[in-house]
Design goal:
Order of helices and strands: HEHHHEHEEH
Number of helices: 6
Number of domains: 1
Strand content: 5-15%
Largest sheet: 2 strands, parallel
Radius of gyration: 13 Å
CATH class: Mainly Alpha
Length: about 110
């Protein structure tokens, strides 16, 4: 399995209403210094969010943000990412996740 597939499989573990960071996701994929590669893998996700929901194979790329609480990018646009996060109860203000530490999902080793 290539790194991009490992990233997509791992991000599925992030529960609804939680967020994780590119850095934590890279670490969970056994590539702790590959945060940028994680972002590229998420951006290249071939199935859209809605196609994945229809197939019951949701890949919640929108739940991955920067370590400083900033939203970061999203292939469907940052506004769409914010809408998806807020639908899950994650509040965003001025481009940052509120209650960052309470919402943060850390992967189990």
């Amino acid at each position: 399995m290539d790194f991009a597939q490992v990233v997509l499989n791992t991000v599925r573990k992030v529960p609804k209403g939680k967020i994780t960071t590119y850095k934590l996701l890279a670490k969970a994929c056994n590539k702790p210094k590959a945060s940028r590669s994680v972002g590229r893998a998420l951006n290249k996700n071939k199935c859209s969010f809605f196609e994945n929901i229809a197939k019951n194979k949701m890949i919640p790329c929108h739940r991955v943000i920067y370590s400083n609480g900033r939203i970061g990018g999203f292939s469907k646009g940052v506004e769409k990412k914010i809408v998806l996060l807020e639908k899950e109860g994650v509040l965003v203000q001025n481009g940052r996740v509120l209650e960052f530490s309470e919402r943060l999902y850390e992967f189990k080793d």
